Amino acid sequence: MSNGNDSRDAASSLDLSDEELAKLSKQTSALVIDYFNRISELAVFPDTSAGATIRRLGSELPLEGDSVERILNDCRAIFDFSRHNGHPRFFGYVASPATAPGAFADLMASSLNANVTSWRSTPAATEVEQLVVRWLGNMVGFSDNASGFLTSGGSLANLNALLIAQRGHAKADVGRSGLWNISKPQTIYVSDQVHMSIAKAADILGFGRDQVRVVPSDKRFRMNLDALRKQIAHDAQKGAQPFCVVGSAGTVNTGAVDELDKIAAIAKQFNLWFHIDGAYGALAATDENKRALFKGIDQANSLSLDAHKWLYTPIDAGCLLLRDLNAASKVFSANEADYIKIHEQTDQESFAFWDYGVELSRRFRALKIWLTLRYFGTRKISRAITEDLALAVYLSEQINKSNDFELLAPVELSICCFRYLPKEYRRSKSVADSKQLDEINSRVMHAVQRGGEAYLSNATVDGRFALRICITNFRTTRADIDQTLGVIRNAARELGHE
């Protein structure tokens, strides 16, 4: 392979010969293909302990290059010492498996190595990202002509949204004068089920705990609308400046979806920015049977969602959808450095992502979403999501049929929260709260996680420790659900809790 510069000393060039490149490509592809073929046969969590990986790989800084064979052999070890989120019985957190098209798209994106800062920097990647954002908005019912941008994930999308909302409602020029120059304290309204990234974003933006109003949830873990309305009115009367309410389109604890249309009406009544955190659940709106659950999603000012949570694309692939892109440009477009000033003439060619969000350096995240949607089509992906939803219902049915499990929350999307009941707790399906029962389930969960046959996480539901299964995996079957319940029972038995 020639790099077009014959004067370059070969000893300092990092270009590979055609033969070397072919060898690396062939062996790397073989490793990836083998992994996809055997992922269901692996232990979900490896039989390992802290430090084992580095002991296997070595820690010395390499001064000279190594052979492809030895390097890829060590890559296999990295695979072996990893937790496998794509395993059909991985139910912890919200992490869908990557598809092969998405994984290979990441290879192509990394090969191009585009820094997607503006149209000038990378015309094709910029236009593909704008297209993908529009597709995502259309898929979830937010807008047929959505605008916005891709992020590392829901946390950064939520941070951008709150910043845009806050600056848009501040009467002072906060960007220049600082939050302390706002005469009235600004307040944000969230449910007690909201994702931790919202509180973290508020903290980063300088809001104190007393400015983040936590509204209680109802029996279905949705935001209590009467409490929301009363809190906003009370704060406004006391001289505060309410500016934003955050609804959830699928909480990460139980999968609850707030009454988005009613929150939208309250936001409109009080002139608040309405942001929806749909990082986990918004893509469930692609299932026609669930679409009504998301009524009002099209009335939000902004919506976060993660393609890597339920669109089966590799991490990182978050997104912030915006009703009005100009609201973001008012926040970010000032004070550009000379070296990044745009001198193009048309609106499209002068477009720059740094005018709308926090990031400057940005990966070509859109390619893996674009390729995944092109390869499978939205109908097939929607069917996979629908099956995930059906499996969560099936799991809840098996729990309700049993005498050794108790369902702790309604199954609204693909999350099921329940707990194991030892013999002494099985007299009633409505068991009193018990710290001992919480501890038993905590030990059972840890035993299941480290056992390698299945992986589940936990949640706190009405003050009770819950085993939590989240299904966002196109490989999972009913047999996997049945096997996982058996694994939990076996773990409890081995711990002496039959």
Helices and strands, with pairings:
Layout: H1 18-38, H2 52-57, H3 68-80, H4 100-112, H5 123-140, E1 147-151, H6 154-169, H7 174-177, E2 186-191, H8 196-204, E3 212-215, H9 225-237, E4 241-248, H10 260-269, E5 273-277, E6 302-306, H11 307-310, E7 318-322, H12 325-332, H13 366-376, H14 378-401, E8 405-407, E9 415-420, H15 435-451, E10 457-461, E11 464-470, H16 478-494
Parallel strand pairs: 2-3, 2-4, 4-5, 5-6
Antiparallel strand pairs: 1-7, 6-7, 8-9, 9-11, 10-11
Task: Please provide a written account of the structure.
- The protein is α/β, with parallel strands linked by helices and 498 residues long.
- The chain folds into 2 domains: 17-58 and 73-99 and 377-498, Aspartate Aminotransferase, domain 1 (Alpha-Beta Complex); 115-375, Aspartate Aminotransferase, domain 2 (3-Layer(aba) Sandwich).
- 41% of the residues lie in helices and 12% in strands.
- The chain contains 16 helices and 11 strands.
- The strands form 2 sheets. It has a 7-stranded mixed sheet, sandwiched between helices. Strands 8-9-11-10 form a 4-stranded antiparallel sheet.
- The radius of gyration is 25 Å and the shape is globular.
- The protein starts with 17 loop residues before the first helix and ends with a helix.
- The model has no long low-confidence stretch (mean pLDDT 92).
* Major sheet description: 7 strands, mixed
DSSP summary, beta strand count: 11
Estimated structural class? alpha/beta
Q: How much is the radius of gyration in Å?
A: 25 Å
Mean pLDDT: 92
Listing every helix as H and every strand as E from the N terminus to the C terminus, the arrangement reads HHHHHEHHEHEHEHEEHEHHHEEHEEH
Low-confidence stretches: none
CATH topology of the largest domain: the name is Aspartate Aminotransferase, domain 2
The CATH class designation of the largest domain is Alpha Beta
Please report the number of helical segments: 16
How much of the sequence lies in strands comes to: 5-15%
**Gross geometry:** globular
| Major sheet strand order | 1-7-6-5-4-2-3
CATH architecture of the largest domain: 3-Layer(aba) Sandwich
* Proportion of residues in helical segments: 40-55%
The domain tally reads 2
Name of the CATH homologous superfamily of the largest domain: Type I PLP-dependent aspartate aminotransferase-like (Major domain)
Q: What's the N-to-C terminus distance?
A: 66 Å
